[in-house]
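Worked example 3. Consider a protein that binds iron/sulfur cluster.
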Amino acid sequence: MSEHSFTLDGKIIPFTPGQTIIQAAMDAGHYLPYLCYHPDMKAHGSCKVCTVKVGERFIASCTTLAQESLVVESDSAVLHEERLSLIQMLFVEGNHFCPSCEKSGNCQLQATAYDMKMMTPHYPQFFPNRPVDASHPDFLLDTNRCILCSLCVRASRDVDGKNIFGLSGRGIHTRLIVNSASGKLGDTEFSADDKAAKVCPVGAILPKRKGFAVPIGERTYDEKPISVFTAIERKEKT
Ligand code: SF4
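Given these inputs, the predicted complex is written out as structure tokens:
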């Protein structure tokens, strides 16, 4: 047992110095929702779904180091409301048509929305018209579903050493791009063995010819809600 600890919703969470709040919470078996975080990669802190409250401050738990005696709040009506709004905004900003998406049942955005009991997108839909890139022989890239989590960017750059993806633009104009002369995925060294091929939390990067290999109803988050997966189980899925 670590000699260091903080409290999360009144429960004692041990940590080792250098761990972030989300890492320590997950190691202790506590769920904090997240989309852009991945245990194998440097935190990005962009989706804000893992936001917790410390004192009067709202902070991203994936980028904040755990500290001795910190009093962290996660399970509150205010935080649930804030996170639900973030998820709803992601749904309306892109095109997430779950019934026709091959990722349905394995999608972390959909599973998080279910877990948060989201009933409607609440905000007006943007219905953007973004490119679908089918140039790669084995993968489809549909940027209509991209939530700009940058996981594929970090995985390709930091794990695969290929730097195939990037985020371009600022604010609401930020878009996922492919780093090839043509801008097409088919003109890169992207392969099924890449970490970047496995980390997309939504259905933006999908393998071809695998549709419905696992039937609807038997997929990861059909089995149980995302909040009851252990950190290790969830990591093994990506
Ligand atoms: Fe994230 Fe997927 Fe978009 Fe890459 S394609 S930034 S992994 S949502």
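Take a moment to read the result before moving on. Residues 42 and 81 are 27 Å apart (CA to CA). The pocket of iron/sulfur cluster is lined by residues 146-152, 176, 199-200, 202, 204-205 (CB under 6 Å).
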